[in-house]
Amino acid sequence: MYHGQLLRISLAKDPIEKSNTTFTFGKRVLRNTIACSFERESVNEAPAKALRRILDTPGVHQGPACFDALSAKLVERAGFQYCFTSGFSISAARLGLPDTGYISYGEMVDQGELITQAVSIPVIGDGDNGYGNAMNVKRTVKGYVRAGFAGIILEDQVSPKACGHTQGRKVHSQGQGLLADAGADVLFVDALASKEEMNAFCEVSPLVPKMANMLEGGGKTPILDPLELANIGYKLVAYPLSLIGVSIQAMQDSLMAIRGGRIPPPGSMPSFEEIKEILGFKSYYEEEKRYATSTYQLPSRRVSSSIYNTQQKDQIDTEQTDRSPQEPIVEVITPDVYNNYGADGSRGPFSGIWSRTLRIKITGRDGFEKLDVRIPAGFLEGITNIVPALGGVNLKELVDGAAGEVGGKLILDFNDTIGDRIQVFLE
């Protein structure tokens, strides 16, 4: 009645040579697929080994289908041991088109590599029908290995392929496969229409694990809970539409709210902080600190040597080489020639300013100090060479207004465009 199989191809040998036939697969009433798990010395074997450990573990194992890196991360965060990629969902999300053969091998490999890099759990890739003849199948298998997949699902459909639960499906004849000799890991027949058909299928080759496809929302196969599927004899269970389906519904609801002048209500979406946590902002900032260096060093060459004598408070030595991000490089500039700047006793607008000091303090958005520097208060024209964010600020007016005050005074406090806090004190 049906001869659907999931096939393991060991890449230690040429899969085409091993089958001694064209790489097409058995005839059946419904859709056939072939799943290959990958093992090869030249690539990381961890994904395939992890998938084999799952197959060797008692019980039935659920695998939601993802369609991009974010949905894969959510599957892993939810505690699932593995996941599938769904060609149906990827075609919908990436192209906005139906799963009727539109999406190409290159697009699926590209999307798959982004997915496998985003998670540490093994991912089984949807390889459609191999995207062509036997030579295309070889290229597809090798490409999925390089993309980091733990296994691949291949179908015996004639191009253009279609979703197994839709119309227009055509499969190759049974005589074109030697599937048992190729070494099937898991058997899979899609779109079985009753529990009786599912029971009959699981009696075929009872020592080989079986996979069920619980297509949500109205597919041909009855939806059974994991315990029922385990009792029938299934080992793996795919859920191909849950994530793309609820995403479509949530986006439609949100757009209706926005069009009505509202935003999505509380509880219908994560908070901004939760979204950042899911995407890894916190871990990014923590790792960023390891590579942080001061971005506000005083380049002495920007100040004329005929006017100023630039001195570094902390010289570059062994101790400074080991400096942590909490210990920024600090430079102090002292005036060498005052006469042209009102230090000769004249009563211009900045008389006496050279006896005062400007302290510029910059604190990064991560809370660590980036700069703490003191310069003569009369050195205003060149201050933007030190802190470009002060460009456009009328520091002369601020200094003049506070010049007569005794003691320290905070004359400026703001956040720049990258989130750093900049404070200027007149001391």
Automatic annotation (TrEMBL):
Q: Which UniProt keywords apply?
A: Lyase
Asked whether the keyword Ligase is assigned, the reply is: no
| Gene3D superfamilies the UniProt entry points to | Phosphoenolpyruvate-binding domains (3.20.20.60)
| Listed InterPro entries | ICL/PEPM, Pyrv/PenolPyrv_kinase-like_dom, Pyrv_kinase-like_dom_sf
Molecular function in Gene Ontology: isocitrate lyase activity
Instruction: Give the reaction(s) catalysed.
Output: D-threo-isocitrate = glyoxylate + succinate
- Among its keywords, does the record have DNA-binding? no
Superkingdom classification of source? Eukaryota
The entry's protein name is 2,3-dimethylmalate lyase
Naturally occurring in which organism (per UniProt): Quillaja saponaria
The organism's taxonomy opens as:
Eukaryota, Viridiplantae, Streptophyta, Embryophyta, Tracheophyta
